[in-house]
From TrEMBL:
The keyword Membrane applies. One of its GO terms (molecular function) is acetylglucosaminyltransferase activity. Pfam families: MGAT4_cons, MGAT4A_C. The chain crosses the membrane at residues 20-37. Keywords: Glycosyltransferase, Membrane, Transferase, Transmembrane, Transmembrane helix. Residues 62-324 form the MGAT4 conserved region domain. InterPro entries: Glyco_transf_54, MGAT4, MGAT4_A/B/C_C. This is MGAT4 family member C. The keyword Transferase applies. Residues 337-465 form the MGAT4 A/B/C C-terminal domain. One of its GO terms (biological process) is protein N-linked glycosylation.
Amino acid sequence: MRHSLKYFDKMRCLRKRSAVSFLGVLVICLLFMNLYIEDGYVLEGDKQLIRETATHQLNPERYVHTFKDLSNFSGSINISYRYLAGTPLPRKRYLTIGLSSVKRKKGNYLLETIKSIFEQSSYEELKEIAVVVQLADFDSAWCEGMVQDISQKFAHHIIAGRLIVIHVPEEYYPVLDGLKRNYNDPEDRVKFRSKQNVDYAFLLNFCANLSDYYVMLEDDVRCSKNFLTAVKKVITSREGSYWVTLEFSKLGYIGKLYHSHDLPRLAHFLLMFYQEMPCDWLLIHFRGLLAQKEVIRFKPSLFQHMGYYSSYKGAENKLKDDDFEEESFDIPDNPPANLHTNMNVFENYEASKAYSSIDEYFWGKAPSTGDFYGIVFEKPIKINKIKVVTGTEDRQNDILHHGALEVGEKIVGSKKGRQCTTYLRLGEFKNGNFEITDVEHKVLFDINCMRILVTKSQKEWLIIRSISVWTSQMPNQ
């Protein structure tokens, strides 16, 4: 009898534990079903993904295929937007500039930011941009006041369809109180950064179909002159290469450029992990999950942080981007090309790293006479200017001590081994650098190739820091 009672007690305990386990699993399943209800399915491995995100240790290689296959993430988030100023765009633009703004305890820089965007753009550039401002504060009086100020100062841009002001009602926001306190952040800090993630998600969702590309700015930013033209040149120079995010500032969520077709996935991603970490950390993980392992950042920076007080509690924020240049500068065209060299390349400092505006370089071991760095353009081009810089500030002797620059025509060979049969020498390197202008007046043929030729062996290694090519006309134009 005693054994029977023990047996039944044991069975009751097992049933109780089983019920608790079942309920726990059921709650987790319901939470995930609720999270993905619009997409209609639950992603395998997301619990591990959330755990790794919470410790800032996402594994991009492990999850890249899962995340890239989220076809349903191309759909928009089902929320209603209030148009506070402006109307839906009548046509698609080249670039949308998105800003999200909230009431600050000290200072307000939104109007100056909008002014800088428009003032630093030419009339032709203005035709290709749309500016979307999201007033993300729940204080309706503040929103109304800001709309009045924006409408008065930028009425002609609103009428021209270049400026839209939107707002998402508070009812569409997820829970913002009692969130997880990762990184020992105080509760109000967690609430602030979590809401900011949701603000950005809603803004990205709205902008997904407005243009070909999208750049995110903060509401306290100054722009460089003709920044759109610079962005277009960079995008053209990246044709044929894979990228998720191009960065035009090294600060926060400023100057981050995306393909518009990636915005729905990014919006869902920010909502999925809105309470886990700040948005700039999440963006690093998003880029990695879509298989862009390295940062692609361009210099000089096109956008500068100008605010003195943060939107969080009015705290001081004196951060500045020391790579920013406000005046117009001449970014090279660097037409699409195949790059190759017969030099002994050191580690991963391959040839492609010299032919871009990215802060990287080519590094080869001591070159010998006749060694070369070759560029074969995808299409024949007319060149106006060429500039090559070798060596770096910390390795000033790793320059090309004896070399020449040549351009060629008449391509032969297969796609992988293409080269020119005839070359014309344009000049010699001096102190490791080479620069020439008015090339189209000195070279009578369309240029297929360009090469840097070592004319005398050297014991020092060679760093090619940058190769810049300006065309007098783009191919097929």
